[in-house]
């Protein structure tokens, strides 16, 4: 090979090698925390596929390393802290579980405020900007969407005919707002993580527990309970959020595409969650149609008008005052902003 050809070949090779990192750098890598595997079908059928096909879903050169939180060794109560520390870029935010670190976000899902999907959607829309601003200020995290697991209902291993029957029973709860309500009806609230609830019911640590019917079905709660009372205490609203560092690294047109993709994703989950809710109630009670879960034989306890009134009254009697007291201590304008945005949606003065 002539010297000239050798030099030319070396130059071409150098150019290719120099260009390779640039091509590789064109793709953006992000790390995401997902919902626990144990929560079931929304995580499995909607969330995981969204993140695993993130580039196609968003039309952006972004590859996401998605991990359900119960595979990471990170507690679901620590999501905002690990985001603020810069350990992850995107989070599927568990609202109630992280409300101790930021009480403002619990205003999204006060007990009794969102008894059905239509109301829950209105509350989420009305309160979205307030939460987004607070998360940006306190944790450098931007809110990109809000979606529901669906109405959180009661499962018991002892016979019940109405909500008041939990008096004297130990009830698994997942946030302080719900705990205050259980105290109101005479039960003893016991904070237990979702992953530990099946065992807690089995061992008698708790007599009853609250979650959505689909999550309960996926986690096998009907194996260790006998009754379900399908009254919605909360909508179990959750969110998708991204660190401001990751958000600001994107160009304005990329941000617009990303925002649109998350809005489409959350809208899809709203629809899917509502379908799952009724189907899972059927599955738990051993009725048809049951297409999304395993059939069990729980007693389906009829919801009485008195039960409905009791839950609806929780907003003004318990959940709003208790939450406002805690939230206003860490965020002076907290309850004031809730009254300005969410209260009109619920017809509260």
Structure write-up:
The chain is 49% helix and 16% strand. The chain is α/β, with parallel strands linked by helices. The protein folds into two domains: 8-148 and 236-277, Bacterial extracellular solute-binding protein, family 7 (D-Maltodextrin-Binding Protein, domain 2, 3-Layer(aba) Sandwich); 153-234 and 278-346, D-Maltodextrin-Binding Protein, domain 2 (3-Layer(aba) Sandwich), CATH 3.40.190. Strands 7-6-8-5-9-11 form a six-stranded mixed sheet, sandwiched between helices. Strands 2-1-3-10-4 form a five-stranded mixed sheet, sandwiched between helices. Helix 2 packs antiparallel against helix 10 and helix 6 packs across helix 11 (305-330). It is globular. It starts with a helix and ends with a helix. Residues 1-24 have low confidence and may be disordered. It comes from Ramlibacter albus.
CATH architecture of the largest domain, by name, is 3-Layer(aba) Sandwich
Looking at the structure, the CATH topology of the largest domain is D-Maltodextrin-Binding Protein, domain 2
Question: What general outline do the C-alpha atoms trace?
Answer: globular
What does the average pLDDT come to? 91
Q: Major β-sheet, in short? A: 6 strands, mixed
> Care to count the β-strands?
11
Helical fraction: 40-55%
Distance between the first and last residues' Cα: 88 Å
The named CATH superfamily of the largest domain: Bacterial extracellular solute-binding protein, family 7
Report strand %: 15-25%
Number of helix segments?
13
> Which secondary-structure class do the elements indicate?
alpha/beta
What is the top-level CATH class of the largest domain?
Answer: Alpha Beta
Radius of gyration from the alpha-carbon trace, in angstroms: 23 Å
* Total number of distinct structural domains: 2
Which parts are unreliable, with pLDDT below 50 for 5 consecutive residues or more? Answer: 1-24
Strand order of the largest sheet: 7-6-8-5-9-11
H/E element sequence:
HEHHEHEHEEEHEHEHEEHHEHHH
